[in-house]
Write a structure and sequence with these properties.
mainly alpha; 72% helix; Four Helix Bundle (Hemerythrin (Met), subunit A); 6 helices
């Protein structure tokens, strides 16, 4: 299950469910919340790349740390009882996490771009799975 601390990463941290009905709906619809987390991680990586170009290393670091936190939240939320899919997804998250660290510490744009590509592919795959409604053997407990 995606934890409450992940909520602040999915949206603007200053927003509350009262101010943003989409946030309230996302808390009730775990599949929507999952997509929001992926989307926020992608935005953080995009912003980090832009901030590298702008020579804003502090901002870059903040965005990449936020993306790393989201990736770890996604990993922690996996239902490891599902089997190989969850285990392999966890390995992929750890790989992405390491790429983000490398991108942050070494200013390695290629590492950030690779991490973004992997998360982008996963985002698209989850969109398709959620749209088709086949969630019987998913590695996330999407049903409330």
């Amino acid at each position: 299950m995606v934890t409450h601390s992940a909520t602040r990463y999915a949206t603007d941290e200053r927003e509350t469910p009262r101010e943003n009905p989409a946030l309230a709906a996302a808390r009730d619809d775990k599949s929507l919340f999952l997509l929001m987390l992926y989307n926020k991680a992608l935005r953080c990586m995009d912003e980090a790349l832009d901030l590298i170009d702008a020579d804003d290393m502090i901002g870059k670091g903040e965005r990449l740390l936020q993306a790393q936190d989201i990736i770890m939240e996604l990993s922690a939320a996996l239902d490891k009882n599902v089997g190989a899919v969850a285990v392999n997804l966890e390995r992929l998250y750890i790989y992405v996490y390491r790429l983000l660290i490398q991108g942050n510490v070494r200013l390695d744009r290629a590492a950030i771009i690779e991490a973004r590509g992997i998360i982008g592919d996963l985002y698209q795959a989850w969109q398709q799975v959620i749209m088709e409604g086949d969630s019987e053997t998913l590695p996330y407990p999407l049903r409330a």
